[in-house]
């Protein structure tokens, strides 16, 4: 049976009796294209032959129905993508020019079979997936630079900026989020890249550090759409890292960062938290402080602990503030079927159904040994791509994001869709007026179901554990 074709009539699927005579045939309705990934990897984000035709809905049907409602709209989407770590950029930059150009087009262009990644998260300074620890103002121990005379983006000129400029040439509208793993060590209570806290006397200097970063990237032709203040502020055990409790983050925003952005006339968004779903009280603490909240666009989340519904709890308390999902790893070597189902169910579907404007998977690329990383950094983070010189392996996160990024373009709006048992899904209306429906068959057997919109419906099916993106 062809998976992408309309199914033959099944028991319980009522059909109108055929008419004879001179009656004109009914006007053809829309037809959906199915892009499919199966857990056995026989189909990997592959367009299926045939179309799913929409016809007038039958008066009585049995079986599950996913019904969309265009009139019930939720958040706009900023994009789907990855974290372009320094290590990812280094591996990409070391590829041959022709091979890299071809791969970047596959990732960031939206035509053909390219996946159209529309959002990237960058580290401000080093993340733990850089080959070495650095900031933009490193000094010998005991020295300080409160006026930031030694600030320089030079470390990013080796690999990150050249790759970013190639990406921007393919997709000039891609949105970029910057997140620091640590301030320069001289700003910290322990004087080290790992752990410690931001010294209060360094608030103003650190605020200017953010301003210089945004302005410096702009001078390079790279617009930073948003920043988070600290990656995983409650996890000081990484290298680099920083401990920054909610009360301190609020104080830093209202006393230093917010006024500094305002004085510099930056429109770069300030996003708080950037950590796990188990501590929604962290962003809520900041948003309840009106002096801090006036500068805050919204909150960012990871999912190494807690429940994805925490995003809705924060949104419902402050509906005027945005919600973002900014990081989730897959542990090497990965388990394709389980990773595909969990990440699509929890993030692509779950995060967006809980108001997230972005869904970002952790590192875009690593080598076959999950390098590079800092001493003490993540040794098991499986990239969306494994790069071995010019050889490319596409891993689960490539397909997880690809099922959304190509079709749910920036500016798409999530619309209501019902959720039958074992068929989690999310629906969008794109700026071009298309409908996009992402469905996971979360059952252990194939499922038949109907997709219904505006009095028309089509019959569909998915193999067990498969993900389908329907576009019409």
Automatic annotation (TrEMBL):
Which residues does the UniProt record annotate as the domain Glycosyl hydrolase family 30 TIM-barrel?
77-407
Kindly indicate whether the keyword Hydrolase belongs to this entry: yes
Q: Source organism's superkingdom?
A: Bacteria
Q: Which SUPFAM superfamilies match?
A: (Trans)glycosidases (SSF51445)
| Domain called Glycosyl hydrolase family 30 beta sandwich: residue spans | 411-470
**Any idea which GO molecular function terms this record carries?**
glucosylceramidase activity
What biological process terms from GO does the record include?
A: glucosylceramide catabolic process
UniProt xrefs under InterPro entries: GH, GH30_C, Glyco_hydro_30, Glyco_hydro_30_TIM-barrel, Glyco_hydro_b
A GO cellular component annotated for this chain's UniProt record is: membrane
Record's signal peptide: none
Q: Which UniProt keywords apply?
A: Glycosidase, Hydrolase, Signal
Query: Which family is it part of?
Result: Belongs to the glycosyl hydrolase 30 family.
* PANTHER family membership: GLUCOSYLCERAMIDASE, LYSOSOMAL ACID GLUCOSYLCERAMIDASE
Q: What is this protein called in UniProt?
A: Glucosylceramidase
Q: Which organism is it from?
A: Hymenobacter edaphi
């Amino acid at each position: 049976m062809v998976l992408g074709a309309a199914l033959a009539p099944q028991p319980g699927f009522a059909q109108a009796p055929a008419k004879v005579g001179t009656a004109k045939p009914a006007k053809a309705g829309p037809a959906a294209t199915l892009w499919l990934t199966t857990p056995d990897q026989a189909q990997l984000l592959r367009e299926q032959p045939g179309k799913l035709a929409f016809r007038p809905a039958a008066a009585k049907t049995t079986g599950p129905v996913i019904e969309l409602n265009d009139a019930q709209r939720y958040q706009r989407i900023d994009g789907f993508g990855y974290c372009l770590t320094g290590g990812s950029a280094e591996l990409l930059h070391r590829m041959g020019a022709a091979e890299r150009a071809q791969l970047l087009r596959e990732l960031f262009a939206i035509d053909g079979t390219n996946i159209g990644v529309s959002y990237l998260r960058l580290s401000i300074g080093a993340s733990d997936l850089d080959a070495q620890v650095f900031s933009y103002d490193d000094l010998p121990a005991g020295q300080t630079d409160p006026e930031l005379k030694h600030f320089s983006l030079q470390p990013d000129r080796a690999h990150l900026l050249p790759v970013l400029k190639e990406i921007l040439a393919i997709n000039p509208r891609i949105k970029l989020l910057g997140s620091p793993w640590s301030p320069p060590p001289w700003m910290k209570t322990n004087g080290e890249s790992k752990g410690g806290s931001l010294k209060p006397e360094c608030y103003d200097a650190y605020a200017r550090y953010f301003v210089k970063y945004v302005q410096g990237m702009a001078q390079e032709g790279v617009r930073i759409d948003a920043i988070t203040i600290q990656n995983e502020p409650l996890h000081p055990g990484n290298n680099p890292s920083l401990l920054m409790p909610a009360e301190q983050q609020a104080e830093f925003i209202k006393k230093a960062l917010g006024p500094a952005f305002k004085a510099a006339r930056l429109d770069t968004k300030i996003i708080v938290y950037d950590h796990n779903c188990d501590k929604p009280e962290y962003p809520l603490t900041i948003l309840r402080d009106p002096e801090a909240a006036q500068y805050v666009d919204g909150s960012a989340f990871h999912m190494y602990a807690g429940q994805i519904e925490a995003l809705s709890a924060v949104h419902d308390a402050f509906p005027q503030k945005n919600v973002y999902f900014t990081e989730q790893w897959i542990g090497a070597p990965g388990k394709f079927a389980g990773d595909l189902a969990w990440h699509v169910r929890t993030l692509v579907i779950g995060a967006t159904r809980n108001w997230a404007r972005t869904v970002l998977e952790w590192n875009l690329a690593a080598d076959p040994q999950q390098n590079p990383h800092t001493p003490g950094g993540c040794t098991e983070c499986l990239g969306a791509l494994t790069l071995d010189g010019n050889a490319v392996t596409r891993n689960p996160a490539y397909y997880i994001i690809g099922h959304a990024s190509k079709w749910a373009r920036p500016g798409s709006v999530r619309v209501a869709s019902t959720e039958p048992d074992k068929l989690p899904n999310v629906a969008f209306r794109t700026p071009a007026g298309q409908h996009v429906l992402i469905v996971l068959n979360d059952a252990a057997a194939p499922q038949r179901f109907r997709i219904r919109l505006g009095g028309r419906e089509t019959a569909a099916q998915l193999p067990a554990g498969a993900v389908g993106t329907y576009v019409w």
